[in-house]
Amino acid sequence: MQRGDILNKQLDILMDLKRILSENRRRVKSSSNNSSVSGGVFSRSWSSSPRSSDFSESGLESELAGGETPKSEQSETEEVIAALEKNGVSFVNSNTRTKMKKGGSGGNNNNNKPKMALRVDIPATTPTRTITAVTSMLWEDLINNPKKGESGGGGGDHINRKKIQCAEKMIRSAFVELYRGLGLLKTYSSLNMVAFTKILKKFDKVANQQASPSYLREVKKSHFISSDKAVRLMDEVECIFTKHFANNDRKKTMKFLRPQQQKESHMVTFFVGLFTGCFVSLFSVYAILAHLSGIFSPTTGRSVFALLSLHLFMYGCNLFMWKATRINHNFIFEFQPSNSLKYRDSFLICTTFMTSVVGAMVIHLLLRAAGFSPSQVDAIPGVLILIFIALLICPFDILYRPTRYYFLRIMRNIACSPLYKVLLVDIFMADQLTSQIPLLRHMESTTCYFIAGTFKTHRYETCNSGKLYRDLVYLISFLPYYWRAMQCLRRYIEESDVNQLANMGKYVSAMVAAGARLTYAKKENHLWFAIVLVTSAFATIYQLYWDFVKDWGLLNPKSKNKWLRDDLILKNKSIYYMSIGLNVVLRVAWVETVMGFRFRMVESRMLDFFLASLEVIRRGHWNFYRLENEHVSNVGKCKAVKPVTVPFRDADSD
Questions:
Q1: Pairing relationship of beta strands 41-47 and 157-160 according to DSSP bridges
Q2: What is the mean pLDDT of the chain?
Q3: What pTM did the predictor assign?
Q4: Residue 532: which of 595, 482, 585 has the closest Cα?
């Protein structure tokens, strides 16, 4: 009920601001004097608020100043204040706010309602807002803070339509989450009523009595079943949402408040089986043809497709296990249940992908046997990659467009770290990239070969021996760890959590170890061998500790489950101990690259591909326990709805 009251007040402020913005725009269009309003901007002077410790939580902050404004703007300022005073809210400058804190008369309006210094908090979720927020903080340190005692009302940030739109989206999301929480309360009430009914029926059956009617009368008098506050508030939210956010379209309102989950189709299962059979058949044909022609060897292009397919398969296994163990991954990742990927969909994408790849490989062999030139035949993998990229960015609403575009947004957020706000799904995806460094290196080599063959900019040998491409290996090996480190830095700035700095240190140590191993591959001497052993051992121990203690929540000596944690989803405890051992073994696979183990019957590239596959399998195995720990933490905190910040806050409350 308190959250509902807060959101109603937020909505009233938003409606007042939108009304005055629209009136000002109409006034500008009808008036020849456009000096006071320009470009649709609400030209009210907004003085930057003093730098506060919660910058990372609140994002861009601004206060409406009532100080030095031109006479042409004075009437508009009074109109804004009058419109908002009915809610007990006034925009005041820093001097007025100081008087209010001292108990001066500036803290009350005509109706004896206390005024508050209103602050518009738009989270810094995009690079533009982040850069603007950081710049404003630096400006306040250099310019505004020394003059804080002087008369306020100087120039500053302006509130415009974009900020109003951001505030509207925040309030809309808050109403959606409030409605979802009310729905959970309603379900909680009905489920407990059903449980009491069944318990009493069981009692009557066992005790041969008819006591349930009298007991049920008492149960129905209980507040959890007799109160209709949740239902009435749900109806109120529906009416408010329909009026203010859905243009009086109730059908549109229900799409937001009660999104329909996508029905699982048996056609997906059918095509998974069909493409699996096609893949097995085509791969068998390819193996026979390659053996007969004597050209069976692992290539870079095939490794790229195989590692991608393996990762998709492991993600499908994760989705299956999360569903089987009732881990709410959609809530954890903030996915929309109506269009989130199911495990069958993941398997369908994986099998379709691999069937296409193996089919292209068979066509490649047949064309090569038919006498086509190598330059023509070798273009097939490049064409296949271009087709997959075109499907990934296809704007039409086909082939899982919401999932494809969400994936692209996540990749954009990762690549631009730390400018975007870091969500758990961004962290999860960046962790996947740290396990796909061999894939990224294969992609660099593949791109180099295709450029050499198509545009004739360099020879094929340059891709292995050229200085530029050898240096690019360092960059590609560092990038995933750098992105994760920047995400940890962003979260430390926002949350002031020292654990984020410690997590950042883990990725920095991984970067140092990766660089040492790459250098040792070029300079095989005792000094670099010792450096590789020390850095890799330190990074591995660091990573194992973080995996078990922080990410999985295990190795708790005080737990009732020996060296695990108190709450376990899997009933068989031995699975956790075996998973710990498996993670240790797969984490130390780097020893092979240092010791240089080679087998005569297995080529070096095949062994590298095998080790890269083991890392992908380890990451898929790690994913399950990471989300299990997050789910257990959410359940322990009774966290069932997403916390949403509101845009308008009392600056004095800080």
A1: antiparallel
A2: 80
A3: 0.80
A4: 595
